[in-house]
Write a structure and sequence with these properties.
heterodimer; B: alpha+beta; six-stranded mixed β-sheet; two-stranded antiparallel sheet
Chain lengths: ~300, ~220
């Protein structure tokens, strides 16, 4: 009984410590978004600016996702496991915020956070930012799990992951019919769904490429690169196939000029594109990772 | 058109990178034909016996062959090579036979029952008369394991058998032994390479049996 109670106390204490780390994260968030200092450090009013709430709390989900990959090893002692969590939690916070900063600098290169979120309350911007926060968190989590408590490997894989994410983001303009910058200025929600689907799809593919056994970092990086290129080859096949199986009609024969463009800006079209991206990505991971070719050695 | 071009470039990049960097491509040498043995077989004296052959792939087959390499100083190792389709098909009927031999500068590519490099060579052993008065080849103590390496088992060649090597070389025809003891149909090969002749590898499965087995195993 005493042992069970002791374990319960340890769990409660550790939960408290995780909350403390998230509190630390709240301040770390201000480093990259100094303009929200007043909002973040004081009591938050979600109703005042929903876009800002989405933007901020998506990061909370993200950091929770990453923290969930760090484990406590109580056999090495309570304080040592706390120290381990503090060290890796801090590294996670730094890497996560840096990744978000870099990715958002690429995607929103001609948009400003203060203008779009604080002044214009652009929900489209906030939702896209939400998708980034979740996907980057999921990828950072995967990379942290794969690094297996090695800081050097973590840094190498994190940089590698960022490069792949950076390239994948640019891929959106190739496969979507929607114009990113124009629709984002218009606070168009169709873009959110389409881009959200694309981001989640890309995240699923990249995470699946990183999620594999590794004994040698060089061979592992080569395998990740090969899987990424293979995914790049397979994904368009599924996208074309899904579009062919579920054809969509845009505009009307007797419709007015520009109706096609208007239809594309509709929420339904954005959801359609997003669904195709996610479904295609999930199916791509199946083709890339779930086919077992076996080896020649059982026969030989 | 632009996208198609980009896709083709990606396919080429993938194939090139996979070929260069993939671990499965590293370490297995490719053999176009028997002439390639000269590069992969080390040492001055060596015999290569075809032990196993296997094909992988669905539409485009890749052929692998496993050889037992017996070189001087009583060493034996198994090597796996990737081969061309023609070479693999041609060698299918030479399982258990010596496909390649090297004796200093001289190379032989004619498939023969294993042992032609050693039988009759006084450096490796001598002819000894058995109880029935028949002369049979006996390896010296230093090479006592050679009959196992060569896949002979308890078989010991007679002088008549050894003459078959010379006749085969003269007529340039593969030599399977006096009574076809070696090769896929040979008794000695079947006894000493049981892995290749396992029932499950030999039997041809029809679609009906395959489906019945599948449902039995999975449901």
């Amino acid at each position: 009984m005493a042992e069970i109670f002791d374990r319960l106390v340890i769990r409660i204490l550790l939960a408290g410590f995780v909350c403390l780390m998230i509190y630390a994260y709240r301040y770390a968030h201000v480093i990259f978004y100094p303009s929200v200092k007043r909002q973040v450090l004081k009591r938050i009013n979600p109703a005042e600016n929903p876009a800002d709430s989405v933007h901020l709390f998506s990061r909370l989900i993200g950091i929770a996702l990453i923290f969930s990959s760090i484990s406590f090893n109580e056999s090495s002692g309570f304080f040592l496991s706390l120290f381990h969590f503090a060290v890796w939690g801090t590294i996670a916070i730094i890497l996560y915020l840096l990744s978000l900063f870099i990715v958002e600098s690429i995607v929103f290169y001609n948009f400003d956070y203060t203008d779009e979120i604080l002044k214009r309350k652009n929900m489209s911007y906030a939702f896209i930012s939400f998708c980034h926060a979740i996907v980057i968190a999921y990828l950072t989590r995967t990379v942290m799990t794969q690094s297996d408590n090695s800081l050097i490997i973590l840094l190498v894989l994190w940089l590698y992951m960022l490069v792949i994410v950076g390239f994948s983001i640019k891929y959106y303009t190739f496969i979507s019919k929607l114009t990113f910058s124009r629709l984002l200025i218009q606070k168009n929600l169709s873009l959110c769904f389409s881009y959200g689907g694309f981001t989640f799809g890309a995240g699923i593919i990249i995470a699946s490429c990183f999620d594999q056994e590794h004994y040698d970092i060089t061979v592992y990086c080569v395998q990740v690169l090969l899987k990424t290129i293979l995914s790049l080859l397979i994904f368009p096949l599924f996208k074309k196939g899904l579009v062919y199986i579920f054809p969509v009609k845009l505009g009307d024969e007797r419709g007015f000029e520009g109706q096609v463009d208007q239809d594309m800006q509709n929420l339904g079209y954005g959801f359609y594109e997003g669904s195709v991206f996610i479904a295609g990505a999930i199916l791509t991971t199946m083709i890339v990772n779930r086919i077992q070719f076996g080896t020649i050695y059982p026969f030989f | 058109m632009y996208k198609f071009f980009l896709y083709t470039i990606l396919v080429i990049i993938y194939l090139g990178l996979a070929k260069t960097l993939s671990p499965s491509e590293i370490g297995v040498q490719y053999l176009q034909n028997e002439r390639g043995f000269s590069k992969i077989v080390p040492g001055e004296e060596a015999t290569l016996i075809l032990v196993d052959t296997h094909a992988t792939g669905f539409l485009i087959k890749t052929y692998y062959q496993k050889y037992r390499l017996i070189s001087t100083m009583d060493t034996v190792e198994e090597i796996i090579v990737r081969t061309s389709r023609e070479f693999a098909k041609r060698n299918m009927k030479f399982i258990g036979l010596s496909i390649y031999r090297r004796n200093h500068e001289k190379e032989e590519f004619l498939p023969q029952a294993p042992g032609s490099l050693y039988v009759g060579n006084r450096e490796y052993g001598e002819w000894r008369e058995n109880k029935k008065g028949v002369l049979k080849w006996r390896f010296a103590k230093a090479f006592k394991n050679y009959p196992n390496y060569l896949g002979w088992g308890k078989f010991r060649p007679t002088q008549e058998f050894a003459d078959g090597y010379k006749n085969s070389a003269t007529t340039n025809k593969p030599y399977f032994g006096l009574k076809h003891e070696f090769g896929p149909e040979g008794r000695i090969t079947r006894e000493n390479f049981p892995h290749f002749f396992k029932d499950e590898r030999m039997k041809k499965v029809d679609m009906k049996t395959l489906l019945i087995d599948y449902f039995k195993e999975n449901f």
